[in-house]
Each structure stands twice: as structure tokens, then as C-alpha cells.
Amino acid sequence: MTYAQGLHHVTAVAADPQRNVDFYTRVLGLRLVKKTVNQDDPFTYHLYYGDALGRPGTAMTFFPFPGVPAGQPGRGQPIETQFSVPLNTLTEWESRLRAAAVEISAGPSNGQADRLQFTDPDGLPLALIAEAPEAGDLESEPAIRGFAGLTLASHRPDSTARMLTELLGYAPVTSSGATLRFKSQGSVRADHIELIESPMMGRPGYGTVHHIAFRVPNRSALLEMLERVQAARLPCSGEVDRFYFRSVYFREPGGMLFEIATDDPGFTVDEPVESLGQTLKLTAEHEPMRAAIETSLPALEYF
Question: How many domains does the chain have?
Fold first, then answer.
């Protein structure tokens, strides 16, 4: 039976696209791997960041909506996105973030040895989690290696827990007070989910996560997962072709929008590795609208 193999990507809402690019490339050191548009709102950017290829498990993506009101991370939302960094690099990361005037809520300087918690310029909660290396990792480099996991705040934690275990194949690991922890059985990174009860009600807007996506290898696995989503009678999109991957979206019982996405074909399907993210890429559906789209979108400067 097919189950999710950890996280595929996380998509959040931003207020200003240039500020978003500056933070995630210059401060966090991620690569802008795809500059495209929201396929449901093509006059809005969809920006993808990640490792050199934007591989599944590393892709942080944003819908920048200038003028959208501020959101409030809280119940009914994913509330903290966690990135994996090498062991013994958190002190270096803390210095780097403070030099960029990033507000830090917890880190090595105040006794938090395994994680560094902060927000991006829109108030989106983020964390760097110190994790042991895998084969091929360059442990001397403090760079972000991809996701470590997520913290979710559900309206119905028990129902969300069943969704994680029975439909997506996560296994319960530990519990600490009101926090339940789960681990994907099919991946070695981007594999942890923390489920908490939040007293704060979530409100959509910039600085909040729009949806999270879980990985499956290919379309065959996606269609198998789709059958289980439909059998569970969850509000569901059916199969959707997002060009860089195929997806199924569904609303889980705790209020959050979940996606299941394929690993293939990936971000090199329409441009070479060397020039990923350098030009605006549009699907065949939106290519005839290119002139109008380019006129409406603000120019972006990045390196």
C-alpha cells in the first residue's frame, strides 16, 4: 500500500514579493528555483525556493499578494515550518539572523540547543532544527538541507492524528503534554509532524501557511492515494496537473488544506538546472497571456 513519503512542499502567503525573495535567498540562502504564477490566479506570482534543484522535501513556495491583510497563525493551520541544518551550526545561524535584524524567539543563546525559532518578515513562524548528517551531506557547511518537519494546530487534533496515521501512513513517535509527534515511514528527512492544541484561532493572510504537500513518487501512487481520500469522503479536488507535479488537494477534518504531490517531473522540465528561476515560466494555458501577466507583475531583483 502506498503512503506519503514525507513532505513535498509548503506553500505560504506573503505580502511583498521582493521582500520575500530577499529574505529566502539572501538571508536563508535558498535558491529561487522557479518564478512562475499562481495557476488559479495567473496575475499573482508563485515563487519556489529550495536546494539547487528544488527537490521534493526542500521546496518552500509563496503566493505574494500585495495588499492582502495580515494573517494570524493558529488553530486550523500549519503554524511552524521547520528546516533541517547540520548539528553544531545553530550558533552560527543565530549570529547570521541577528545580523539581518531577524527577530528570534528561541535559540542557543537562551538555552534552546536543538532548534532556533524566528519569523520571516511577514511574521511566518519558522525554525531551524539541528539534525545529524546523512550520507553525502557536507557537515562543515551550515546551509539549510531541506525541511525537517512541521507543527500543525488542528481544530480536531484526534481526527487529524487519524488522518496522518491511517491515510498518510505516519507513525506516532512520542507525546509530550499536549504535543503529539509523528514520523513518516517512507523518508529520512522532511519526515516529522508535531500536532499541538493552540489557544489562538488562526486567520488566513500574509504570514500564514496556505497548504502543505506530502510526497508520493509518481502518478500511479497519487491515484492510489486519491482512492483512499475519496473513500474517506473528504472534500477533494480530484487529480490536478500542476505541470511540475501532479496533485490531489483535500481538506482534512481539523481544517487544514493538505495536498499530495508527485516527485516527477520536477522543475527542470521547462528550463535547465543552470538557469532555474531566472525567467518567468508559464504553462501552455497561460502563455498566450504572457504580455498582460508580465505587465501586471512587479519586477524582481535577485542573484
Answer: 1
